[in-house]
Design goal:
Layout lengths: L1 E6 L4 E8 L3 E9 L1 H5 L6 H22 L9 E7 L3 H18 L3 E5 H6 L13 E6 L4 E8 L2 E7 L5 H11 L6 H9 L24 H14 L3 H30 L3 E5 L6 H14 L2 E3 L10 H13 L23
Parallel strand pairs: 1-4, 4-5, 6-9, 9-10
Antiparallel strand pairs: 1-2, 2-3, 6-7, 7-8
Length: about 325
């Protein structure tokens, strides 16, 4: 089966074509970072409008890159949720319309399932079961994945997600948007010995997270030491180290709790070099395997949506002609035939 994937959950327009035998044939991602940078964050109305402008040309370009026409497709997958309602509707309406016009089945895909299974786009793909760390601007979750479609939450954030904490602390330091990437870059120039931030909730049992207190700690550090160039780098370094070590400890705990020997990293923060290095070292000590998607597939993309949609369509799943999006959608509520 050859499936067109459409991702419009937030501020990236992602289009891809996935073939169940040949793998990923082509993909395109358009980022709206420059549009939202002026406002210091994503503006939902602007995001929706830009998806409308870009989505059809991107589909045309992706088909051309794959040397295919619409008649070569056997299915369409689009992001149904979670995400921004208006942005989701752009992809859902177009996906359903094209499916009707081309007389091929369509299916709405859970955005987080796409992230969790993004490493399956790689030649060296993980095998079930595994523990997944989903770490992004909106989510920090540890998920026990027994098989395709079976997702059990074993750890969640009680307040800010790790990516959100990165962005807010970056704003405190006067860094640009997107803040998380800017903070990680600045941290490379920091003195790792100058400040030590707390590692929240590591002394409590379980795999839940809490990162809001780190923002307060960063604010108090700024008040006490100022914001000269070196201090900013030192704070960035200490903040990132606290996030990374906390995530590493909770991932190790999740592997021990489940007895699994495979860890999958998903989401935008999964591109962080310091985090990747720490988790790789931890897995080596635990004699566990670790899998990351390639950097471009850590953030939102159409390839992961096309892959998941292809797997579900091959199982005979499809939806009625009505259009429905789910800005809030629990991963554990997914049903797989």
């Amino acid at each position: 089966m050859r499936v067109l994937g459409i991702e419009t959950s937030c501020d990236e327009t992602g289009i891809a074509i996935y073939d169940s035998q040949q793998g990923l044939l082509a993909h395109t991602i358009y980022s709206q970072t420059d549009i939202h940078a002026e406002w210091g964050g994503v503006v939902p109305e602007l995001a929706s409008r830009d998806h409308i402008r870009k989505i059809i040309p991107l589909i045309d370009n992706t088909l051309q890159d794959a040397v295919l026409t619409s008649s070569s497709l056997q299915g369409i997958a689009y992001t149904k949720g979670p995400g921004l309602a208006g942005a989701l509707l752009v992809g859902a309406m177009l996906g359903r319309t094209l499916g009707f016009a081309w007389n091929i089945p369509t299916i709405g895909v859970h955005h987080l399932e796409g992230h969790i299974l993004a490493p399956f786009l790689e030649e060296n793909a993980p095998t079930f079961p595994f523990v997944a760390l989903l770490v992004s601007g909106g989510h920090t979750q540890l998920i026990q994945v027994e098989r395709f479609g079976s997702y059990q939450m074993i750890g969640d954030t009680l307040d800010d997600a790790a990516g959100e904490a990165f962005d807010k602390t970056a704003k405190l330091l006067g860094l640009g948007y997107p803040g998380g990437a800017a903070l990680a870059e600045l941290a490379e120039f920091g003195d790792a010995q100058r400040f030590r931030f707390p590692r929240p909730m590591i002394d409590r049992p379980g795999c839940d997270f809490s990162f809001s207190g780190l923002k307060t700690y960063a604010l108090n550090t700024v008040k006490a030491h100022g914001l000269d160039a070196q201090t900013k780098a030192d704070i960035a370094c200490a903040f990132q180290a606290a996030i990374v070590e906390t995530l590493m400890i909770k991932c190790r705990r999740a592997l021990q709790q489940t007895g699994y020997q495979t860890l999958v990293i998903a989401g935008g923060v999964g591109a962080n070099k310091s985090l990747r290095h720490a988790l790789q070292q931890m897995c080596e000590k635990q004699r566990a395997q670790i899998y990351f998607p390639r950097q471009i597939f850590c953030t939102d993309n159409g390839a992961m949506i096309a892959y998941v949609g292809c797997q579900r369509l091959l199982r005979g799943e499809q939806e009625s002609l009505s259009v429905e999006v789910m800005p809030r959608w629990s991963l554990s509520s997914l049903v797989t035939s």
